[in-house]
Amino acid sequence: MELQLIEYFRQRIPRYPCVRLGIGDDAAIIDLDLPQCVITTDVLMDGIDFRLTEVAPEAAGRKALAVNLSDLAAMAASPKACVVGLVLPEKGGMDLAKRLYDGLLSIARDFQIAVAGGDTNSWDGPLVISITAIGSPSPGGGLSRAGALPGDRIIVTGDFGGSILGKHLAFTPRVWEAIYLYRTYEVHAGIDVSDSLALDLWRITQESRCGAVVHADRVPVSEASHRLATQSKSRMKPLDHALYDGEDFELILAVPPAEAERMLRDQPLSVPLTDIGEFLPERGLWLEKGKKRTALEPKGYQHKFF
After folding, report:
1. Nearest-angstrom CA–CA distance, 80 and 59
2. Is 259 in the same domain as 157?
C-alpha cells in the first residue's frame, strides 16, 4: 500500500543538509542559499524510454534521474535536489517501485543529489516516472543554447550513435565535465545530445540565430554505430547512426577558435574532446564531405502529437 511504500522510501533515502524538510510532508523545504537555481523535468514511460520486459527496473530508475542530470550538465549546473513522481501499475507496483529506487539512488549518490520527496500513484497502465531536478548555476549564469557565434568551433564529448545497444541505459551524465570546461575555458553555448547530434546541434543554431557545418570525417562514430549498421535492415551507415540516433547524452559546445585549440591540446577529461566543425553566420545546417557541402537534415527522435 502507498503508506508502507512512503515509509520504505523514508528509511532508504539518504539525508542531505540542503533538505530541511523532506519525505513525509505536503511539500519539501530545500535550503539552496542561492540567488538563482536551475530547474529541469523529464517524464519517462515504459514502452517508450525503456521496456521493462527487456531491462531491469533498476536500470529504468537510474536512467530516469540520469536524463535530468544530463540536462543540468547542458547548463553547466551543479545538482542539488530532486523530486520523483511515480505512476505505478497496480499489479506488482510495490516491488517495482523499490527496485526503481535502487537504481535511482545509486546514481543520486554518485552525483550527490538529494531526493527530497515526490508522489506515488497507481493505475492499470504502464509505468510512468517524472523527475524534477534542481541545480545551482555556475558563476556567470551557466550555459544555454543561445550564444554561439560565427567562427566558434563545434566541440563534442565522447562518441555518437548506436545507443540503443546499451548506452541509453548506462550512460554517464557529463555533469562534472561540463562544469569543469565552463569554468576553465571560454564556452559560448552548449546542449546535451538527447535526440540526435544533428537535431540538437540544429537547436543551438536556432537559439543562437546562426548556422553550422559538420565535417563528416571528424564525427566520432561509436563502435556501437558500426555494429548497429551491420544489423540494421534500414541500410543506415555508421555515420548516419552517429548523426541521427538519439540518447547519446554527450555534450555539444560552441567554443571560440583559440580556446578550442587549447581545449583540444589539453584534453582534460576522461572522455575525448573532438572538433567536428564550426558555426556559420548564415542560417542552415550542413554536412561537408571532402569539398562537397550538402544540407544536413535535423532528424532525430521527436515525440508525436496529433
Report:
1. 22
2. yes
